[in-house]
Description:
Elements: H1 2-29, H2 35-60, H3 64-84, H4 86-100, E1 109-112, E2 116-122, E3 126-131, E4 134-139, H5 140-145, E5 147-149
Antiparallel strand pairs: 1-2, 1-5, 2-3, 3-4
Helix pairs in contact: 1-2, 2-3
Amino acid sequence: LVAGAVFLAVAAVLVWVVMRVVEFGLRRLFPTESPVYRSFVATVVRLFLWFGVALTFLSVLGLDEIAASLGTATGFVALGVAYATSDMIADAVAGVYLLRDPDFDVGDRVHTAKAEGVVTSIELRKTRFEVEGDVVVVGNAAIEDNWRKISTDEVGTDGVDGDGGGGGDGADDGADASP
């Protein structure tokens, strides 16, 4: 029992040190990234560290079989949760890409399959657009698949896309390309 208490004290200090290094590294590696992105990565790292500490603590107490069973059961639960939350995970992954995309930013006028308007906020799972005075919230996975930035010269005085509102994926259709 004393060995377990000592282990937890040492592990808490080590987790604290590792998290400071991770947070410092994230700030240095991604200085222009959204704090939401850095916080998400740090939280995932912290979760894995503490889970490892908990399993090791059980082993230190002599409960190796329980630690192994708990690790295996957690894997199956994680698989089920991942399947059940696949849409949410897809939105979060797409959100990371959108947060890092220099062509997709707050204030841009964007056309997606679900909405066309001015981006007012980009979060990890959802993006908000202002559309004719209303706020429209769209999951990031729906945006990341197919969106197009509308340049200011395409937008008429009525605020409508100059090409009739056609869709697209942001790729050049080759109409202006020279042979």
